[in-house]
Specification:
Layout (H helix, E strand, L loop, with lengths): L1 H9 L3 H5 L3 E4 L3 H8 L8 E4 L1 H24 L8 H4 L1 H5 L7 H13 L2 H20 L3 H4 L5 H16 L6 H12 L1 H10 L4 H15 L7 H8 L1
Parallel strand pairs: 1-2
Helix pairs in contact: 1-3, 4-8, 4-11, 7-8, 8-10, 10-11, 10-12, 13-14
């Protein structure tokens, strides 16, 4: 909660807090309000880790595919369904598709008719966001310019407002990206990430899942460390 975050920050040395230039988070309004609205980090600027941007874009593609699968079959997808056969291809970046895989994907989308058009639009929206993320110095080794980032964001919004205008999931995605636009742009420009913290968090969760009944919290924490 916001109280947890602000309480922890308030307990830290004021000089340490004043020296923080950037705080990298996922798209959490709790962390945003704690960092930007508490006044405890006076010089910090927020950054949204771009991993979460692409994660959200992939979720959007999956949401569109599942909605249309249910509309077509009145049930969840199965291995024999055309929509299901391209599930993993839709998650893959377009530059990682072999010629055969790309042909399979495009043919399946064409055979699905309007459902294929909507799924393809969601996939294209995801790829436009990946184009934005690939401007990061973590990918190119070179600092991106604000003009490059602005053009990449505008290309996504233009697509969402035209080709993707009739797909509700794309509209929701565009609204979320618009809300966090400044923080996402800052991530691409600086290359900052919270990957190390996410990696530790994932490890802790894995240990907790395999704990099978730890009743002593101290021992559980020791096991994680």
């Amino acid at each position: 909660t916001k109280t947890d975050v602000t309480g922890w920050l308030a307990a830290q040395d004021p000089a340490w807090r004043a020296a923080i230039d950037y705080v990298t988070i996922d798209m959490s309004t709790v962390y945003k309000s704690a960092v930007a609205g508490s006044g405890l980090l006076p010089n910090a600027r927020l950054v949204v880790d771009v991993f979460h941007v692409i994660q959200l874009a992939n979720k959007t593609v999956g949401d569109v595919r599942r909605r249309l699968t249910y509309a077509r079959h009145a049930r969840r997808g199965r291995a024999g369904d055309l929509e299901y056969t391209i599930k993993n291809l839709l998650r893959r970046g377009q530059e990682r598709l072999s010629k055969t895989a790309r042909h399979k994907l495009l043919c399946a989308l064409a055979d699905l008719g309007d459902a294929g058009r909507q799924i393809g639009a969601a996939w294209r929206a995801k790829e436009l966001l990946r184009d934005l993320v690939r401007l990061s110095p973590n990918h190119t080794g070179l600092a991106a310019t604000r003009d490059q980032v602005s053009k990449a964001l505008q290309a996504f919004f233009d697509f969402a407002a035209t080709t993707g205008a009739t797909v509700p999931e794309i509209q929701t995605l565009a609204e979320t990206i618009s809300t966090w636009r400044a923080e996402i742009a800052r991530a691409v420009l600086t290359g900052h990430s919270n990957a190390a913290a996410e990696g530790v968090n994932r490890l802790v969760k894995l240990v907790y899942r395999s704990a099978f009944g730890f009743t002593n919290v101290t021992n559980q924490q020791r096991r994680s460390r």
